[in-house]
Design goal:
Layout lengths: L1 H19 L13 E4 L2 E2 L6 E4 L2 E5 H8 L2 E5 L4 E6 L2 E6 L4 E4 L2 E2 L7 E3 L2 E5 H7 L3 E5 L4 E5 L8 E2 L7 E7 L2 E6 L8 E2 L5 E7 L5 E7 L9 E6 L6 E2 L5 E7 L5 E10 L2 E13 L4 E9 L6 E4 L5 E6 L8 E6 L4 E6 L13 E9 L5 E8 L2 H6 L1 E7 L4 E8 L6 E3 L5 E6 L10 E6 L5 E4 L5 E8 L7 E7 L2 H6 L11 E6 L2 E5 L8 E7 L5 E9 L2 E8 L7 E8 L13 E5 L6
Parallel strand pairs: 1-13
Antiparallel strand pairs: 1-2, 3-4, 4-11, 5-6, 6-7, 7-8, 8-9, 10-11, 12-13, 14-45, 15-16, 15-46, 16-17, 18-19, 19-20, 20-21, 22-23, 23-24, 24-25, 26-27, 27-28, 28-29, 30-31, 31-32, 32-33, 34-35, 35-36, 36-37, 38-39, 39-40, 40-41, 42-43, 43-44, 44-45
């Protein structure tokens, strides 16, 4: 029913836009108009005023209506509002107004009235990327953002053999797809969650929880059972970085922060926790006097971890194998070809550690001692732990999700290309480790690639996302459309060029391919806006049979549009005959 109501309002507003886009806001009505946002009255009603046939609104009230960023600087007498990547800045003392640092002119001056700062409503809203429609008969202003204000709703009652965890505006939900017409279950109302993922057997979901509802506040590691019961905090200390489940058992490895005079700071401490229905048992594996542990990952056998230690005055970056009882052995030390200049730039640590399934090859990125340069590009490499030989694969971005070993461990699919924006210059490449690290470029001119995922058990079939480069977004930084319009999920096979296996409107974009164990179907996220979309279920070979499962998921496009941390985590249960 909510979907029908939503479509009704869209139709009504579309009609109003056609009929009234040329009708100015006038003073024909004696009373101050009411305000609607996406078909809903705003309560409490904000303060509106008429000024020369223009409706003015308090900038603070407008930021609340639009869920936009807002800040007032009393000392400088400046203020700004931010939405969809657009910022409008006001300086009261001079009347200066800028949009994304470029001067603009208001139709009616912004003004301070009785201590409240008012701005022309239509002009500001439309310059932020939303739409304003005036309903003369109702004496009403309608703002249309296109955003959804209700929780995601299940659209299809079709059963599927998977458990799905997802976050919606930071709230955590669970859906058991095996139950026909089952409804999503919300786990908590307050705070924010960030997905870590499912345990190996699918009985537990791990997530980071921010009690203060701010992602810059301390994050605590939590687990919950697949049916939504038994939620518990794993450790009394907050965590940083990315916790990781063991590939064999219900064990979680993680690094922690500790409180200090400067607030919570990262440490050189690595722990793991055994998770059972009865209790959680925490063990400390590493406790080093370093500023942080940049990265770690489980060995494929689940009996030890490889831990990255950063460069110090005495030692270059190194990797150590650490057993569950604390025994340690050196795995590899970075070879410095030239002396390090402490005042210059140098490789600081191994990050994004990813093992091949057979435990022979370790993929990594090299983090610089400059955060800015690390964000722009990092070196991608592979360590052969048998020969101690490394393969340098060129530059890319630092996302471990962009490193994917084939099931037979002979190939590494990765995304190459510098520049921190994922909408330009990102290419799929595959290194053939059985052929000495030979690199084959599978990119397509004018397109960007992300999120490589091998089909289970297949050594030559890879899923990934591909869409047209978005030069316009790069130049303007203007939202609210999708980041890469027309992005689809592709399949790369040895018998021909990569081909799209999803089909949707060019105004949408597909992300997060999650294939079933048989490789016959998948779940993926389709966005119709940069921060909102639907979850789909589809046979890999039949895009026309895609079924919308959940509608209205909302989240962040992430750091420079990388869409991490993920909004969804899928656990496929074993299928018949698997």
């Amino acid at each position: 029913m909510r979907g029908s109501i939503s479509k009704f309002w869209v139709a009504v507003f579309a009609g109003l836009m056609v009929l009234m886009t040329m009708v100015p806001l006038t003073t024909a009505a004696a009373k101050v108009p009411s305000l609607m946002v996406d078909g809903r009255p705003v309560t409490p009603a904000p303060s509106l005023r008429w000024e020369k046939e223009t409706v003015l609104i308090s900038l603070k009230d407008l930021s609340t209506c639009l869920n936009a960023g807002f800040e007032w600087n009393e000392a400088e007498k400046t203020t700004w509002i931010q939405k969809y990547g657009r910022t409008i800045f006001f300086r009261l003392t001079t009347g200066e107004v800028k949009k994304n640092s470029q001067p603009i002119t208001l139709p009616v001056p912004a003004q301070l009235i009785d201590g409240t700062f008012y701005v022309p409503l239509r002009f500001v809203v439309e310059n932020l990327g939303a739409t304003v429609v005036w309903d003369n008969a109702a004496n009403q202003v309608n703002i249309i953002t296109g955003e959804r204000h209700t929780p995601p709703e299940r659209i299809s009652g079709q059963a599927f053999n998977a458990l799905v965890a997802y976050t919606d505006q930071g709230k955590l939900w669970l859906l058991d797809g095996r139950e026909t017409n089952s409804q999503p279950k919300q786990l908590f109302d307050s705070g924010l969650a960030e997905l870590v993922g499912w345990s190996k057997d699918g009985t537990w979901l791990a997530y980071k929880y921010y009690a203060d509802a701010k992602y810059d506040s301390p994050a605590y590691l939590w687990v919950v059972q697949a049916d939504g019961s038994g939620a518990r905090q794993v450790d009394t200390e907050p965590v940083y970085g990315d916790p990781e489940w063991s590939p064999k058992t219900n064990r979680l490895a993680y690094t922690i922060e500790q409180n200090s005079a400067d607030g919570y700071v990262s440490t050189g401490i690595v722990r793991y926790a055994d998770i059972t229905a009865e209790k959680t048992q925490v063990h400390t594996l590493v406790e080093e006097d370093v500023v942080m542990i940049p990265s770690f990952t489980w060995y494929p056998d689940g009996e030890s971890l490889v831990v990255s230690f950063p460069r110090t005055q005495e030692q270059p970056p190194r990797l150590e194998r650490v057993g569950l009882t604390g025994q340690r052995s050196l795995l590899y030390t970075l070879k410095d070809e030239t002396p390090i200049d402490p005042e210059g730039l140098y490789f600081w640590a191994f990050i994004s550690l990813k093992w091949s399934p057979d435990g022979r090859y370790l993929a990594y990125h090299l983090r610089m001692n400059s955060g800015s340069l690390t964000a722009d590009s990092v070196e991608t490499g592979v360590l052969d732990t048998e020969t101690k030989q490394t393969y340098s694969l060129g530059g890319g971005l630092r996302y471990p999700q962009w490193l994917a070993f084939s099931p037979d461990s002979k190939k590494l699919a990765y995304i190459a290309g510098g520049g921190r924006d994922v909408i330009l210059n990102k290419q799929l490449e595959i290194a053939d480790l059985s052929a000495g690290g030979q690199v084959i470029d599978y990119s397509q001119s004018g397109y960007v690639d992300t999120q490589p995922v091998w089909l289970p058990g297949e050594t030559n079939k890879l899923l990934f996302c591909r869409g047209p480069e978005n030069e316009a977004l790069f130049e303007s930084n203007n939202l609210p459309g999708v980041i890469v319009p027309g992005q689809r999920i592709y399949k790369l096979s040895p018998d021909g060029p990569a081909a799209a296996i999803t089909a949707g409107p060019t105004t949408t974009a597909d992300y997060y391919p999650s294939p079933s164990p048989s490789g016959k179907e998948m779940i993926f996220l389709r966005l119709e806006r940069f921060n909102q979309g639907s979850l789909y279920l589809q046979p890999l070979t039949s895009p026309e049979k895609a079924v919308e499962v959940l509608r209205g998921l909302r989240g962040s496009p992430g750091y420079y549009y990388n869409y991490y941390p993920e909004w969804i985590s899928v656990y496929w249960l074993s299928e018949a005959g698997q």
